[in-house]
Amino acid sequence: MLTPVTSKQGDLNYLFGSVTDVDIGYDGKIYVLDKILLTIFVYDSDGEFTQRIGQPGNGPGDLDNPGSIAVLGDGSICVADGCNGWIKYNSSGQNLSAHLLDSGTRGMIVAVDSTDIVGRQSVHRRLKDGRHSRDMTVCRWNASDPDSIITTYFYKEYIMSHGPDMAQLMQDGVSFSVYPPFLFSAGYGFVCVAPEPLDDPILLLFNDDGSMIDTLSLPYPVIPKTQEEIEEEIAYIEGYYNNLISGYGMHFEWEWEPYPNHPMISSIGVDSLNRIWVQRGFEHQITFDLYDLSGEHLMTAVLPDRNNIHHWEFFINENGIIAVPQDITNHYVIYLLSLEN
After folding, report:
1. How far is CA 200 from CA 26, 197, 203, 264, 266, in A?
2. 92 — alpha (psi -120 to 50), left (phi > 0) or beta?
3. Mean pLDDT along residues 2-23
4. What is the mean pLDDT of residues 187-211?
C-alpha cells in the first residue's frame, strides 16, 4: 500500500524543488534531500514536518550540489555534495564536519551501521582520444574519514563519448542518469551489486570484507520497447530535461536516443530481514521480486497503480521503503510503502 506522507499543498515545508535522495532513519524519520532548494527536509514517521537542515552556500555545513544522503545508526546525517565534498551533521542537524575529498566524488551512499557507509566513488579522467571516463567503485568507508577506503567491492569504467558538442554532452549525461551503469545496495553483513541492470539480470553478493558470497542469476527476459513506448520516452525525457536546463538559463537542441529494450532491473534494495528487493524493469506495473541470500525467490510484490503514474524512484533500506513519483507536473509527493497480506 502506498501512503502519502508529504502532500500538504501550500505549506512551503511540504513543497520540493527536486527530490534528489531520500533516507529513513532508525527512528522512523524521513529525510528528503532537495537539490534545487539546497536543504534537507525532515519529517516524523507520520509525515509531519519537523525541521530543515543545511542551507545554500559554500561555508561549513552549507549545500551547493548535494547528490546523496545517508542517516547512520547513531542518528547523524551524511551528505555527499559534488562541490562541498563530504558533510556530516549530528542528529539535531548541527554541522559536525565538512570535508573536501582528496580524489573523486561520493554518491549513492547507504549507511550500514553507526559508523560506516557503502557508496560509489567516482574519479573522472580524460582519455588520450579526447573522451572522458568515470572510474567508479562500490566501496566502504568510515563516515568520519571518507578518504580512507576500507573495502572495495566492485569496479566499472564508464566511457563518455562527448567532446565539445553540447548535444552529445547532454545525451551522455542523461544516459548516465536514466540508465545507471550498475546498481547496488547493502544489508546487514553483505553488499549486493547488479553490474549490468540493462542487459544482464545477475546479482553479485559480497561479504563485508569484500569476499564473494555468490552470483545470483534471475530469470528475466529481454523485452523490446514498442514504438509507442519509445516515442513516449523521448517526449518525457526531452520535456523533463529541457525544462530542467531552462531553469538554469540554458537552451540548445538535442534529441534523446532511448535504449531499445526495457531495463531488466530498475532498482534494488535490502529490507530489515536482509531480503533483496529487485524491481523488474520490463513490467508496466511496479513489480518487485524478493530473494534471500541463497537466491531463493521468496515472493513477488506488485504495487497498485497510483494516479496513473508510471515513472517512480524507490529508496529501500532496513528501516522502510519510500516511493517518489517522477512524472508529476506540479510538485513531488513522498509515499511510504507498507505491505498488507
Report:
1. 33, 6, 9, 7, 12
2. alpha
3. 80
4. 96
Question: CA 291 to CA 298: how far, in whole Å?
Answer: 5
Write the pLDDT tens digit of every residue in 114-143.
Answer: 999 999 999 888 778 777 788 999 999 999
Q: Is the pLDDT of residue 251 over 70?
A: yes
Tens of pLDDT, residues 151-179: 999 999 888 765 556 777 778 778 888 88
Q: Which residues pair with 136 in a beta bridge?
A: 122, 156
Per-residue pLDDT averaged across 272-289, rounded? 92
pLDDT at 334 over 60: yes
Across all residues in the chain, what is the average pLDDT?
A: 88
The Cα–Cα gap between 205 and 215 comes to 6
Helix (H, G, I), strand (E, B) or coil at 175: helix
As a whole number, mean pLDDT of residues 173-188 equals 89
Cell of 261: 529494450
3-state secondary structure of 267: strand
Cell 574519514, residue located: 145
**Would you give the DSSP letter of residue 330?**
S
Nearest in space to 153 (alpha carbons), one of 112, 115, 200: 112
Q: How close are the terminal C-alpha atoms of the chain, in Å?
A: 10
**What amino acid occupies position 254?**
W
**In this structure, how many other beta carbons lie within 10 angstroms of the beta carbon of residue 48?**
12
> What is the identity of the amino acid at 317?
N
Q: CA neighbours within 13 Å on the CB side: how many for 260?
A: 2
Whole-angstrom Cα distance, residue 1 to residue 242? Answer: 33
Q: How far apart are CA 71 and CA 234, in angstroms?
A: 36
In angstroms, rounded to a whole number, what is the distance separating the alpha carbons of residues 91 and 113? 15
DSSP H or E segment with residue 174: helix 166-178
Phi and psi at residue 252, in whole multiples of 5°?
-160, 160
Tell me the C-alpha distance between 83 and 2, whole Å: 35
Spatial distance between the Cα atoms of 186 and 110, rounded to a whole number of angstroms: 7
